[in-house]
Hints:
Blueprint: H1 3-20, H2 24-37, H3 44-61
Amino acid sequence: MSINREEALRVKELAxxxxxxxxxxxxxxxxxxxxxxxxxxxxxxxxxxxxxETVQKAGASSPP
Length: 64
C-alpha cells in the first residue's frame, strides 16, 4: 500500500469520527482532503456530498 493511500485512509477515518460527533464542517474538509490525496478511494465523493447536504440542512434549521 502506498504512503499516500495510507494517509488518505487515516484522514478518511478522522472525517468519519467527526461525522459521528456531528462536526460536519470539519468532517467535510477532511473528506475532501482524503479525496485529494487519493482520488481512487471508494465513497469519498459520496461522503462529501452527503455531508454538504447535512451542513445545509443544519444551517437552515438553526435559529437566527
